[in-house]
């Protein structure tokens, strides 16, 4: 339980840029400690993105519950937010004093592309794991087995719809995606 708390505390401190920036850290925690599989992480991302609240909070709660029940969920969530709250308190106190500092401005300029890189990396990881089955390829060695046809088809259809109907409400996309997921799992 202490390991779970420590890992989510670290994720909270180093996930600058919001919940999507936590995804690379969560992949590492899942693989290293087995709190959840990559497939469960993808499910957590889907649920977290389609439910109210911050994605990092939703994901830490889910991962904690998955690893150690409801107590684990509460402790993982508290651990995730503790570090950022402490950092924000220090920044708030120091910001008035250093808000015109070149070093502070340069730090924020550097953090933006680093955060964008983390989010882009997380997005590409989710896309890759969703559309391609690496394990099937490893077992058979056949390149044809790497593609997951149903998720790829759904992705192409949604991409086409979103390209054609740029003002399509995200809630509609989420509901359609959820219904397709439920229907296809039956």
In short, what is this structure?
The chain has helices at 2-14, 23-33, 38-50, 55-98, 102-131, 134-140, 149-164, 170-185.
Task: Outline the structure in words.
Helix content is 81%, strand content 0%. It has helices at 2-14, 23-33, 38-50, 55-98, 102-131, 134-140, 149-164, 170-185. Helix 3 (38-50) crosses helix 4. The protein is globular, with a radius of gyration of 19 Å.
In the predicted model, the low-confidence regions spanning at least 5 consecutive residues are none
Mean pLDDT: 82
In whole angstroms, the N-to-C terminal distance is 34 Å
Strand percentage, roughly? under 5%
Instruction: Give the structural class.
Output: mainly alpha
User: What general form does the structure show?
Assistant: globular
Number of strands: 0
Rg over CA atoms: 19 Å
Number of helices: 8
**Proportion in helices:** over 70%
- SSE series: HHHHHHHH
Largest sheet features: none
Labels describing this entry:
186 residues; globular; mainly alpha
Task: Give the SSE layout.
Layout lengths: L1 H13 L8 H11 L4 H13 L4 H44 L3 H30 L2 H7 L8 H16 L5 H16 L1
Helix pairs in contact: 1-4, 3-4
């Amino acid at each position: 339980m202490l390991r779970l708390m420590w890992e989510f505390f670290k994720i909270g401190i180093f996930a600058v840029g919001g919940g999507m920036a936590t995804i690379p850290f969560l992949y590492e925690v899942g693989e290293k400690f087995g709190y959840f599989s990559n497939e469960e992480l993808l499910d957590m991302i889907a649920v977290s993105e389609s439910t109210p609240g911050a994605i990092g909070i939703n994901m830490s709660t889910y991962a904690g519950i998955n690893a150690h029940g409801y107590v684990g969920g509460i402790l993982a969530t508290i651990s995730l937010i503790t570090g950022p709250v402490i950092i924000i308190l220090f920044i708030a106190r120091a910001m008035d004093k250093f808000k015109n500092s070149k070093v502070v401005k340069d730090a924020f300029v550097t953090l933006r592309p680093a955060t964008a890189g983390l989010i882009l990396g997380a997005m590409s990881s989710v896309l890759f794991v969703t559309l391609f089955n690496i394990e099937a390829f490893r077992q058979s060695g056949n390149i044809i087995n790497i593609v997951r046809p149903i998720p790829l088809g759904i992705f192409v259809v949604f991409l086409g719809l979103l390209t054609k109907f740029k003002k399509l409400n995200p809630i509609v996309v989420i509901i359609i995606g959820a219904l397709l997921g439920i229907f296809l799992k039956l």
